[in-house]
Amino acid sequence: MNKYRGISLFLTAVFMCTAAYGQQNPQNHQTKTVAGAVTSVDFVGNTISILTDGQHRMSFFVPGNSIITRDTHDIGLMDIKEGHPVTIQYDIMSPGKNTADSIIDNQPSSHES
């Protein structure tokens, strides 16, 4: 009977360790901010691409819970146009996989132009 209890405890410990290592650690994410001009917006794939102020091309996935604003007002991804200056706060989920947390469209509202 003790033999089975020992095996059971061992398997439970192995399972717990495996589950802990399988969970994604939020501390592994790197949150960064970048500014640039929009080069394209894909509404189907929910992505936005920019040319940064440092002349680097970057693309971002824009999930439904991303905060998108212009002049402190909420807007949608469809309101951002090519050429608009934006500031994007994003997480690097893995190399080359950037996810936008927030996008600020720095294009002045049409009534201010």
Characterization of the model:
This protein is α+β, with helices and mostly antiparallel strands. It has one helix spanning 2-22; strands at residues 30-42, 47-52, 57-61, 67-70, 73-74, 85-94, 97-105. It has one domain (28-112): Beta Barrel (OB fold (Dihydrolipoamide Acetyltransferase, E2P)). Helix content is 19%, strand content 43%. The longest helix has 21 residues, at 2-22. The termini are far apart. Mean pLDDT is 81; it is low at 11-25.
The class by helix and strand makeup works out as alpha+beta
At CATH level 3, the topology is OB fold (Dihydrolipoamide Acetyltransferase, E2P)
Helix content: 10-25%
CA radius of gyration is 22 Å
Task: Give the gist of this structure.
The chain is of the alpha+beta class and 113 residues long. It has one helix spanning 2-22, and strands spanning 30-42, 47-52, 57-61, 67-70, 73-74, 85-94, 97-105.
Q: How are the secondary structure elements laid out?
A:
Layout lengths: L1 H21 L7 E13 L4 E6 L4 E5 L5 E4 L2 E2 L10 E10 L2 E9 L8
Parallel strand pairs: 4-7
Antiparallel strand pairs: 1-2, 1-6, 2-3, 4-5, 6-7
